Amino acid sequence: MDVLNYTEFRKNLAKNLDKVNDDAEIVIVSRSKGKNVVVMDLNEYNSIAETLHLVKSEANRVRLQSAIDEMNNGIHYTHDLIEE
């Protein structure tokens, strides 16, 4: 994670945005006369948003943890594909 001041970030805007996209790097832009901001790749943001949605409810968290535990313990089922 990089922390850049606003002037540095703006001066090398294209390079900094490419780094965010290409390296999945998160950049914090510090501003002297405003609140700091985070710049991140859209795919990374969407992934975080999806994870937050999935673990929002206790029932979902329990079900997901159960599935992970089953997978880690080698419990899995194989099904044939249904062809029409």
Automatic annotation (TrEMBL):
The lineage of its organism: Bacteria, Pseudomonadati, Bacteroidota, Sphingobacteriia, Sphingobacteriales. Pfam families: PhdYeFM_antitox (PF02604). Coiled coil: none annotated. This is Antitoxin. NCBIfam families: phd_fam. Belongs to the phD/YefM antitoxin family. Gene3D superfamilies: 6.10.250.330, YefM-like domain (3.40.1620.10). PANTHER family: ANTITOXIN YAFN-RELATED (PTHR33713), ANTITOXIN YEFM (PTHR33713:SF6). InterPro entries: Antitoxin_Phd/YefM (IPR006442), phD/YefM_antitoxin (IPR051405), YefM-like_sf (IPR036165). Antitoxin component of a type II toxin-antitoxin (TA) system. It comes from the Bacteria.
